[in-house]
Amino acid sequence: MNAITVTPLTTDTSLADTLARQRAAFLRDGPPTLAQRRADLKTLRAAVLARRTEIERAIDADFGHRSRHETATMEILPLVQGIDYLHRNLRRFMAPQRRHVALSFRFGSARVEYQPLGVIGIMAPWNYPFGLALMPLATAIAAGNRAMIKPSEFTPRTSELLERLVAETFPPEQVAVVTGDAALGAAFSALPFDHILFTGSTPVGRAVMKAASANLVPVTLELGGKSPVIVARGHAHDRTAARIAFGKLANGGQTCVAPDYAMVHADDVEAFVAAYGRAVDALYPAGPAGRDYTSIINERHFNRLRGLMDDARAKGARVVTVGARPEGAERRPHTLAPTVVLDATDDMAVMQEEIFGPVLPVITYRDLDEAVAYVNAHPRPLALYYFGADDADRSKVLSRTTSGNVGINNTLMHYAQEDLPFGGVGPSGMGAYHGIEGFRSLSHAKGVFAQGRWNAASLLRAPFGWLQDTILGLMLR
């Protein structure tokens, strides 16, 4: 393949020009066929796999340290599996849906056709900078759209790689990557797209939604929040702790659906902390300086996390590092050892902000109703996790709490289920992608009614008289 020169799009004018070219191409070419969409998905899949090593190295460099295995497991594998799912189910997703026709219209037919919206704006975060840019792109392609992607400025090497990959894979009037800082991001969110899909923090999500509202652009917001783990009484054992530690510490805790804090029965706290320590030790036997443990993305976020812990200590919490060789964190830039915060209270910043790091507050409850009430007294989370038996307590948690998704006796794994929608509720987001819900989020559901030769409703037209009175009397009984 010949080398392709990539010219970064960094001005408001070039953003608008790119959008205009994509929209003109969309209107000129019309909706792509099933075969075209499947071919584009296969092309994207091949481009990702051909650059696997480059992707792993770029993300490792952006983080300061991230294991290639973690990148492959947490970004590349879910992306490839998601593309395969869309390819496999696309015919079914695209098929028109027959809908019910009332008796008075019985000789007509009704259906819903799912047509592309046009041009989708995708705003990707820094924590999974590759997968969370290209999985929305795959969804947009499956739905027949064109797309512009704005990656995070915090991961410049990955952004540059995304720019090259897209330029070498798709023409710019189909898919384009634009790079720049927060100011460019603000300009991007103000463009008159046909839909914006944003993944990131709740404060930035609010700003994106406000900017999009000026053009009445619909948005899908994948945000975050404080996702709780409720551990049922008697379930604070090694298996529970191991699954919580995996979810909390994957990617150094920098995951939007990571367990943010754990709610443990007061009688089980010491057992849970001991089991959590053993789980951390088993996951990272070389400690935070080992090759498998991920650094915090930059010094700014590292200092934010240190500030959360300092605030908790000053307000009476016990802040304890766990796992092997925690002192090793000091030998690697912006790396934080796995930490547990005990006796956490609501006046502490660590219980007010989304943590986004390897710090796990543990709070206690005496009765499950108390735990449910605590969750419901706070903003609805992107994920909720419950560890316990299949009993009335589990049913109570499921029926009386509202969250984006729920994991039972696991953490993070709901994201990997391609057939489940993924999205938040309230402050943790709106809309969803993954599954058929993702396809429909980026499609217009157009209702079509075809009139039959005979239509009973025509009997209700003017001029009105006894016939209309008789029919209305029968229909409105």
Rg on CA atoms, Å? 25 Å
**How many β-strands, per DSSP?**
16
Tally the helices: what do you get? 15
Backbone structural class:
alpha/beta
Mean pLDDT: 95
| Biggest pleated-sheet summary | 7 strands, mixed
The amount of helix comes to: 40-55%
**At the fourth CATH level, what is the homologous superfamily of the largest domain?**
Aldehyde Dehydrogenase, Chain A, domain 1
CATH-defined fold name of the largest domain: Aldehyde Dehydrogenase, Chain A, domain 1
Task: Explain what this protein looks like in three dimensions.
This protein has 15 helices and 16 strands. With 477 residues, the chain is α/β, with parallel strands linked by helices. It folds into 2 domains: 12-223 and 428-447, Aldehyde Dehydrogenase, Chain A, domain 1 (3-Layer(aba) Sandwich), CATH 3.40.605; 228-423, Aldehyde Dehydrogenase, Chain A, domain 2 (3-Layer(aba) Sandwich). The strands form 3 sheets. Strands 10-11-12-9-8-13-14 form a 7-stranded mixed β-sheet, sandwiched between helices. Helix 3 runs antiparallel to helix 6 (156-169) and helix 9 crosses helix 10 (269-283).
Briefly summarize what is shown.
With 477 residues, the protein is of the alpha/beta class.
How does the SSE layout of this entry go?
Layout: H1 12-29, H2 34-50, H3 52-63, H4 68-94, E1 97-99, E2 109-116, E3 119-123, H5 131-142, E4 146-150, H6 156-169, E5 175-177, H7 182-189, E6 195-199, H8 202-213, E7 219-222, E8 228-231, H9 238-249, E9 261-265, H10 269-283, H11 299-314, E10 318-321, E11 339-342, E12 359-365, H12 368-376, E13 383-387, H13 392-400, E14 405-408, E15 429-430, H14 435-441, E16 443-450, H15 466-475
